[in-house]
Amino acid sequence: MNLYEHTIIARQDTSPSELKQLTEKYSKIVEKNEGEVVKTENWGLINLSYLIKKNRKGSYIHFKIKGKGNVINELEKNEAIDKKLLRYLTVKVKKFDLETNYFGKNEDSEKKESNKN
Q: What pTM, to 2 d.p., does this model score?
């Protein structure tokens, strides 16, 4: 079994309920192809570095997936035709970092910033 980190960027005007549907849709595709979604993270609405299809922001959803290569092929085939998505990216990793929350409020960094002032 291979380990993958897969991120999708949905259009900025996608509602929270539509984001939940997207998450469920792609999780089901992974499970149908004998894969497993280990963790799903909703990173929220983030500014894009440059305009993508006339959008300045995008809603990021990140999956940690365990499965074979055909899982990713099937995912990307479905994502290529989805009009709600701007971009997607898959990276093969050696192990998952399940502890670190990169886009959440971190108490340690807030304390360091307050001590600087």
A: 0.80
> What is the C-alpha separation between 103 and 42, in angstroms, rounded?
9
Token digits of residue 16: 């929270």
Residue-wise pLDDT for 63-81, tens only, equals: 999 988 888 899 989 999 9
The torsion region of residue 74 among left (phi > 0), alpha (psi -120 to 50) and beta comes to alpha
Work out the angle at residue 60's Cα, subtended by the Cα atoms of residues 56 and 62, and round it to the nearest 5 degrees: 155
Among 3.40.50.300, 3.30.460.10, 3.30.70.60, 2.60.40.730, name the CATH number for the domain at 2-95.
3.30.70.60
Residue-averaged pLDDT of the chain:
84
